[in-house]
Structures are given as C-alpha cells and as structure tokens.
Amino acid sequence: MDAKIKFNTKNLDLFYGDFQALKAINMEIREKEVTAFIGPSGCGKSTFLRCLNRMNDLIDSVKINGEIIFDGQDINGNIDVINLRTRVGMVFQKPNPFPMSIYENIAYGPKCQGQKDKTQLDTLVKESLMKAALWDEVKDRLNKSALGLSGGQQQRLCIARTIAMNPEVILMDEPTSALDPIATAKIEDLMSSLKKDFTIIIVTHSMQQAGRISDKTAFFLMGEVIEFNETPIIFTNPNDKRTEDYITGRFG
Amino acid sequence: MSRKASDFLVKGIIYLATGITLSVLLFIVGFIFVKGIGLVNWDFLTRDFNEKVVYAFMESNDVPLGIDEETLSKKNPYDKRYETHLEGPIYIKNIGAAIAKVAYKNHSTEREQFVITYIEKDSPFHSVKDSTGKDIKIRTDYIVQSINGNDFSGMTLAEVAEAIAAESGELKVKIVQPGGGIKSNIITTLYMVLLSLLVALPLGVFGAIYLTEYAKPGRLVNMIRFAAECLAGIPSIIFGLFGMAFFVVALNFQISLISGSLTVAIILLPVIIRSTEEALKTVPMAFREGSLALGATKLQTIFKVVLPCAVPGIATAVLLSIGRVVGESAALLLTAGTVAQIPGTLFSPGSTLTVQAYYVAKEEGNIELACAIGIVIIVIVIVLNILSRITSDKLDVFNKR
Fold this sequence. Notes:
- By secondary structure, chain A is an alpha/beta fold.
- Helix content of chain A is about 35%, strand content about 25%.
- Chain A is built from 10 helices and 10 strands.
- In chain A, strand 1 and strand 2 (about 20-30) form a beta hairpin.
- The longest helix of chain A is centred in the middle third of the chain and has 14 residues, at about 120-130.
- Chain B is an alpha+beta fold.
- In chain B, a hairpin with a 4-residue loop joins strand 3 (about 95-105) and strand 4.
- In chain B, strands 1, 2, 3, 4, 7, 8 and 9 form a 7-stranded antiparallel β-sheet that branches. A two-stranded antiparallel ribbon of chain B has the order 5-6.
- In chain B, about 55% of the residues lie in helices and about 15% in strands.
- Chain B folds into 3 domains: about 5-40; about 50-175, Roll (Pdz3 Domain), CATH 2.30.42.10; about 185-395, MetI-like fold, CATH 1.10.3720.
- The radius of gyration of chain B is 29 Å and the shape is elongated.
- The interface of A and B includes residues 58 and 98 of A.
C-alpha cells in the first residue's frame, strides 16, 4: 500500500448518446504496476481506458459524469488535453505507424512538442527503439517507411513512439490481438521490462496474458467493474461468482 | 423467350454499347487529327497568331557571303503550311542577308511575299532598332515589304534585290513577323492553369479540411456540401457572366488574365473540395488517434499526418482541375478575351487554346486551324495527366516501403 496512486476514478459514468457504457466505476490504479482489464467484448473496458487520456473526446455523442483524478487533478475538468496526452501515452489494438519513415515516426511526438535539435532527436530515437527492443532490427533502415515492417515490429514501433514522449502512463488497448504468438511474446517481454519506468494499463482478451504480465486485474461486465484485485487472487480465488465463471470459460 | 436467348441479347447490347462508345471516341480524335495534323509543325507552336509589322532601322554594311551558293539555296525556312517557293534565294551584300520570293496562301488570303532565308554572321540585321530605339531581333522566316519607303509589291525578286542594293547608309526596312502560330495561346493557357490553381487549390483544400475535420455533421455542413454540388453542376457560361459582371466590371479588372483565372478558380472550387474531401475521408481514423495520443494538436495532426496521406486524392483534384481549365471556353471568352497575345501583366487579356479554337472556327471559319489547335489541346491534356500521375505516385506515402 506504499505505492503512489496514479489514477483514481470516482463514480465514473459514461454515455454514448442514451446508452450507458460505464456505470459508476471506482478504481485506484497504482504507479509502476501493470493493471489489466479483462472482460467480454462490449463490456466497456476499452471505453474506460480511452477515458484516461480523453480519447473519447473524438466521439461527439459521449457524455461523462464523475471524476478521474490523475496525480491529484480531475482530467475531465479544465485541463490541457495535449499535455495530458503527452503524460498518458496510448498504444492501439491495430498497429498504426504513420506512413513515414521509422525515424520520423519516433520523432513525430517530440517534434510536435517543438523539439528541433537534431542530435537530441537522434539519441531519443535510438533510446526509444532500444527500450522497445526494436533497435537491432531497424537500425539500418531508419529512413525506410514504417509500413514495410512486420505487424509485430510495427506494434513495437508504436510502443517506441509512445516511449519517446517519456510519458508517466502507457495505455495499451489489446496491443497483441492482431499479432502472432511470437510477436505477442516479444511485446509481453517488453511490457515486463517497461514496468520499471512506466505505469502500464492494458486491455486484453487473453486471460493468460493478463495472468502472465499484470500485477492487478479488473474484471468488467456490462459496464461495471465486477472485481478488481491482485491478479493471482482474481485467477485463483475470485470473490465474485461471475468472475469465476468468466475465467473458467463458462461464459463470455 | 428462353433464358439463354435473353442473356445473349443483353450481352449483345452491352458489347454494342461499349463498341459504339469506343468508336465514337476514336472517330472524334481521329477526325481532329486528320483535319488538323497538316497544320501542326514547329512554326505553328512557336509563332504568334497575328502577323506583326515592324519598321527596322539599321546601318547598311557590305558583308560578303560566307557560305557557298549551294548551301544557301538549300536554306528555306518557309512556313510549309502556307508558303511555296517561287524564286531565289538571292544574297544581298549591303544587308548581309538572302531573300526569296514565295507564294503565300491560307484559307482566306493569297499573296506573294519576300522571305529572309539567310542572315550572315556580321549582317546589319543583327543590330536593328525599332522606331522607339529598342533592339529587335530579326529571324530568318521574317518577310521584308519595303525599304526606305520603296514598296516591293508586284516586283520580281531580281527587282527587289536591285532596289535593296541601291540603298546605302541609314536603312528603314518594313518587316513583317509572320503569324499563324499559337505560342501565345499555349502560354496563356499555362498561365491560366497556374493562376487558377494557385487561387482555387488552397481555398478548396482548406474548405475540405473544414468539412471533414472540423464541422460537426448537421445542417450547415449539408448546406455547404449541397452548395458545392450545385456549383459543380452549373454551366460555366453562368460563371462567365458573373465573372464579367463582378471581376471585369465591378472590380474593374477589365477583360484580363486575372479576371479569367479568378472566374475559373470559382468553377474549380467544387471539384477540388469534393475530391479532397473524399481523399481525407479515406485516411484511417487510426492515424488521427495515433497522432492525438502522442500529444499532437489537431492542426498538427491534420497537416503532418492526414494531409500527406490525402496527397494522391488531392493530385486527382489537381488533375481534374487542369482538364477543366484547359477545356474551359465559355467563361474565359467573357472574362479573359480573345486577343491572341502573351499577357504582359495580370491585367492584360489573352486567349487560351480553347478560346482560340472557338475564335478561328467561328470568326474566321477556319476549321483546319481549329482542329490543329484541338490536337495541341489533346496533347497538353495527356502530358499534364501523365505528369500529375507521376508526381502523385512520387508523393504517395503509402507507396514507399
């Protein structure tokens, strides 16, 4: 209980028009831990994840009630969204490298923040790629298009791109669902090593994945958090019957 | 009727329709080429449309002929479309040039004239001034009509040579720069394309950005889109009338390049907005999300990620626009005029190729010349198409792997 609380949501409701997608979510997410969200499709876990860096702003019909406290500040209030997103990075389900060179992909975020110094950018690109365990594979083709990389490499590039912003939190929305098992394994290894420096929140459909990499797991169902606890407890001794049913594959 | 028979019938109609379309297209292009190709040559592309009379002032200076007679007689820079050789050439020492007599015949005029066929290296023709004292350049296909007031019409070549040789000291030669070419129209057309794109492209692209990236879907957006579509359907003569009333008269731009290109820019706007909008819509949402999630602002996202992805679509818009400008005649007739000259400033008139084709066909009844201009238009459109396709392939970010 000594780790700092990074995100604290209080009675968070979210509506898509008339449809309530999230119901009174209360959750504390700790610094430098891996938190996994599991649950059947459409249960609101991705929606909740996207609340944490205000990506839902892009959807017009979304209405949010309740508070999301990030480092003591309500991010639904009057805050600088751009600044929030530099502190809370995001990796998406489908690898989405921009159609530019590998180098430009990594340098994109810092450049948007006004970083112009070429040597600083060079070191930043190299460090980010190294942290994302991609440097050795791409160091000779930094100026080639990122679209030429394989799916797994593209996803690690997206992670490297996020790391380059040096965020405090990395949100990952099913980052391995479009990848083969080998690429998945590489990304899982990567997550374990990133845990030292970043708070990671990951949405996943694979319970094995949640079991392997996360410290804490939240089980979502129909827009509610049914259970949120240490991962081993969720997987071996859940409190709620529905969690147990889901984990043992009896529904979902 | 059995199914087999009706299938056969429908298939026949489909083939027939395709065949008719293709043959009509081929027939038209073939017709234009057959009618006009006889008039298309280098002179046609590089000469002005109108003949230009200048008085050349120079100092006579005896220059011996530097080449042998045989080589001289082979030099014949006649306009092969209209000129046939009659006599000569004869080299005349005191002007350091050779002239020949030719018969000139086009669809409306017939006459005999004296053409300069060769100018010697040190000839006084190289240092010629016009009546205002400006340097002018005399070329080998120019026509001489008189010297020091002594008119050549009706003379034989020998008499003309004698008349010229008799003069000395200060010479005043009436020279006609031959016409019949469309250089000025080609250049006006290119100016028109450039200027109208310069105005319409930024406006259209920014408008499309507003519609796809900023505007909340609703009544206003639908209205803008509807307006753009209506604009695209309005015949260009209406825009021409507007351009005439607004740019030419109200803003007092006169009938000029700028009036014409602004009018055409309005015609282009809907095309550019529509194509750019379509292109922007095909850019995956994931790119926008990825960029925003990296802390980029919306504008940075649009200009650094979304627009580069839309470049092939925008190139299509440019391509369609070029076709539109090159093909536009009604609106330009009213706003840019029919004067076949290279517009010296934005506010001088000039006729594009299509307007010129209209003009020679309608006012001069010269269908061959109009068809020859048509060939040039077709070639220009094809070349511009190929160019913009190449550039759009080069700029396509998805092509570079």
